[in-house]
Design a protein that fits this description.
The structure holds three protein chains of three kinds. Chain A contains two helices and five strands; from the N terminus they run βββββαα. Chain A is an alpha+beta fold. By secondary structure, chain C is an alpha/beta fold. Classes of the chains: A alpha+beta, B alpha+beta, C alpha/beta. Chains A and C meet through strand 5 and helix 1 of A and helix 7, helix 8, helix 10 and helix 13 of C. Strand 3 of chain A pairs antiparallel with strand 9 of chain B.
Chain lengths: 92, 329, 357
Amino acid sequence: MCLAVPGRIVEIKGLDEAAIGRVALVDFNGSRLQVSLALTSEADVGDWVLVHAGYAITVLDEAAALETWEYLNQIEDVGGLLPANGQAESEQ
Amino acid sequence: MAHGGGGELTRQLVRDRIVPKLANPLLVPLTDGAVVDFAGRRVCMTTDAYVVQPLVFPGGDIGRLAVCGTVNDLAVMGAVPNALSLALVIEEGLPMSTLDLVIDSIAAAAGEANVVIATGDTKVVERRGEDGLTITTAGIGRMRDDVRLAVNRIAPGDVVLITGTIAEHGLAVMSARESLAFETSLRSDVAALNGLIAAMLDSGADVKFLRDPTRGGLAGVLADLVDDTALSLEVIESAIPIKPIALHAAEMLGLDPLTVANEGKCVVVVAAGDADRVLQACRRHPLGASAAAIGRFVRADPPLVELITRAGGRRIVQRPYGEELPRIC
Amino acid sequence: MDRQKIRNIVEQLQQATRDRPPIRLMEVCGTHTVSLFRSGIKSLLPAAVRLISGPGCPVCVTSQGYIDAACELSTRPGVSICTYGDMVRVPGRSESLADHRGAGAQVKVVYSARDALQFAREHADRQVVFLAVGFETTTPSTAATILAADRAGVENFFVLPAHKLVVPAMTALLSSGEVPIDGFLCPGHVSVVLGCGAYRPIAEKYHKPCVVAGFEPMQMLEGIARLVRQVAEGQALVENVYPIAVSEDGNPKAREIMDRVFEPGAATWRAMGTIPESGSILRAPYRRFDAAERLDVTIGPDYEPAGCQCGQVIQGKADPADCPLFAKACTPTRPVGPCMVSSEGSCAAHYKYARHT
């Protein structure tokens, strides 16, 4: 029911205009969004947070956050499944 | 608006409301261009209208898009692009600096693609909306005599290749849209593919099909292939090249990267025995360095695109239904 | 990802369920529904593990009366609707927000309630209405945005509230006794806010195992494996396989902000009727942000589009394929009900990702 993605705080922009919470720039492996820290006041630069709808909803442990990304990042060797890739790679 | 997203709804609109009234043997195949006999030679012609919001986005702009898009439409038909026409509809209020940038970009892209802008037209109209500028290009090119691109030659066992990483154009454009803006180092992949396609065709491989997966993304082209061949396609998710930054941006926006537009990639179908030759030709070209074989045709009923997922499971892939919207849930 | 690990768990599941009657597990969360399909995990599960989609797609559980009210609002001069993407194509009585937008209504897709508030500040001449749907993951973000609007004195920002609470819906399903459920795969991100302690009453009072899981394939498989083990052993415990994000107590700060702005109250769910204490209602000091009150919007009664089984589907009483309209009169291009519109609706997921004829 709710998509949320892990990202890392790279910069604190300061308090939002209404002083409800701080606004941070959060990096999602190369893309950056402004995110409110109103729900996670303890979060700081360098921390990993889980972001849903523009708000950080929890602070994550770094190792755990990286683990979540590992699934996305891994590109498998499919040489055995598709002959063309296997041959091309073996010749490189 | 969903009718413009390049998905199932666009297909219906064209099939049900436009084609029946204009039908003729050249139009009906609904390919990217038409091949006409002209003074004893086979000539390919194509046309496309370009609207993009915003006009300038990371990695490109509407001018580059209009040149590359039309060049690519010719190239995937097996033609050697030669000349383009250019019609600009400029809305009042368009900053002159934007117009200058777009025209410079058109000149540069035409240079890269080795085509000339042979003729053109310019209209200035009242301000209508946010777009400011619409570009229509048409292009002609000489058909190569040594290629036989035809979906009906595709057979079980044939391999599907993609010439590089997917989803960059759509995500880069989205990152620059006012309402959903995000900072990113992602760039649109918009590029003229005629050089890369020539390299593949010159390899001597028996290429059966070429298509640039623009609106509707890779999913759209794969779904078309299954519809047009009545064969099934098995595609391996982890073989599909995608940059981590694109994968994460898609994840962040809740989008399926398979459905996101590309403007500098080509889907290729070849006989299995020729796949390696095409891949190597591709990888030697700067625009094809991360080319990969991603799937193959099989005989299975009903015809479907089936994705073998990273987890080792299976699911089907369909063309998107309309405009893909970022979601939070 | 370790495919071997996945294969091992699948094999264990096959052994554990061999010669057993089917085990019926409800994945409450729509994101689980979609992730199970998209990752292909669904295709790997033994036939004896039956996954039933539950009432966890915010768009799908929203009553038809609300959709009609949002559509009506969008046609008023001077009103701008800000909404998450999925609401845009849900058909109202006659048309969807997308149709109204085509006819000139201002409907903006936003990524966050904050973007809606920002839009309101930049367009003081418009009355900006944010369609506040979603469960406890999302409600705190609406609450924090309302607090910001309140403190900044923004006068042209409103919400049309339809936030819902997960546990009362699960409880309502169990008390109705109409849907046999052996255990719950509990929503990972709602639990980030609620904490896994929230499911203890379900485990204890109804004796149903509850396992909180994230959305990666291993997470979901692990969650299913734990549920199967508990069912086999006759246990009913709350387990958490997503401890990297979910704690026992959740995020108290988020709940505090949510509770400052909203209080529990009756909510109308599609086809499930009005369930007491199952929604989030604006507290008195913040009612001036309630579009229903301030802009005189009537949210009519819930009803189902003719022939549509979405109401049965979200309660796990019917599979999408049981609906006579599924893949015939109702497809993602011409959706009849919300389960076919929302990308996490179970009909859309079945249609897009599973084989059907």
